[in-house]
Design goal:
This protein has 287 residues and is of the alpha+beta class. The chain has helices at 3-23, 31-38, 42-53, 57-75, 80-86, 92-103, 107-113, 124-127, 156-168, 235-249, and strands at 132-138, 141-149, 178-182, 195-201, 213-217, 220-228, 259-262, 275-282.
């Protein structure tokens, strides 16, 4: 069997396991069960997973569960204790300790004071200092993508599939940039019907066999907002961009898809150091 054939077999196994992890994060994830899904012994499965994803299975599960917990803290009224239990922590103390280590503050304080609370519509002067926005003219950019349907908080599942496929097919290149495309307004479309794409930049000659598909970012002017912090906190940045910056800018929105450009990797930096550029397409300036 050739090297390409070997990795193709691993790719299918890893995609099955990645999907299972994302769909069962709130359950006990038994290594034996994951090994069965991968059709590999626990010993070999774990080594293959780490080689492809560049982190251990335990690190993946811990990162994803904390991400979901942060989303619950921001978007729900669940008690911190209930959130801890939901995401697999045996007690409130262990959840608080782990969350604080990752997010820089304990969960109760994060709910009260996290950057998602910084939006202050009653004070335009204060909120105008919140975010850095620049206007850039971007060239058209081809992408490789994996589609996702459902909560935007769950797009990580598509990114796991995307990167697993790229690595297993030897398509990954260090200069690829990670991009999220979001097609629907979550205030207008039911969560389970939200459409998005996990993407990387790639040239047009890069093969795009399923589950990969091709997308293209339109060229033109974009308002680019730099956000630092957890992905769960970005609602405030979106509201400020639309509600404060856009009316004061004198610019109009162009009918193209907005996107997020991820400048660093959640596997390599803590959530408070994540850097994201939110890119809003703009009409050309009238001459």
């Amino acid at each position: 069997m050739s090297e390409n054939e070997i990795w193709a077999a691993y790719e299918k196994r890893l995609l099955r396991v990645s999907a299972y992890i994302h769909e069962h994060l709130d359950e006990d994830l038994d290594l034996g069960r994951l090994s069965e899904i991968a059709c590999l012994s626990a010993h070999h499965w774990h080594r293959v997973y780490r080689a492809v994803h560049n982190e251990t299975l335990a690190a993946t599960v811990r990162r994803l569960r904390l991400h979901r917990a942060a989303g619950d803290l921001v978007r729900s009224e669940r008690s911190v204790r209930d959130i801890a239990v939901r995401w697999g922590y045996p007690n409130l103390q262990s959840f608080t300790r782990t969350f604080a280590a990752a997010y820089g503050m304990p969960p109760a304080r994060y709910r009260r004071e996290g950057s998602h609370r910084a939006y202050a519509p009653e004070s335009d002067e204060e909120s105008s200092r919140m975010f850095d926005v620049t206007i850039r003219t971007l060239a058209e950019q081809p992408l490789l993508a994996v589609p996702h349907t459902g909560s935007y908080m769950g797009i990580g599942k598509a990114f796991e599939a995307l990167y697993g496929t790229l690595f297993s097919r030897n398509l990954f290149r260090p200069d690829m940039r990670m991009i999220g495309l979001f097609l629907d307004d979550p205030d207008l479309v039911a969560e389970e019907k939200l459409r998005s794409f996990a993407c990387v930049t790639a040239d047009e000659n890069t093969p795009a066999e399923p589950p990969l598909t091709r997308r293209v970012l339109a060229g033109g002017d974009y308002a680019v907002l730099r956000h630092q912090g957890p992905y769960a906190n970005m609602d405030a940045a979106y509201r400020w961009l639309y509600g404060t910056w856009l009316p004061a800018s004198g610019r109009s929105i162009r009918d193209e898809v907005m996107f997020e450009l991820y400048l660093n990797n959640p596997r390599e930096v803590p959530p408070n150091e994540l850097l994201t550029e939110i890119c809003l397409p703009l009409q050309p300036v009238a001459v």
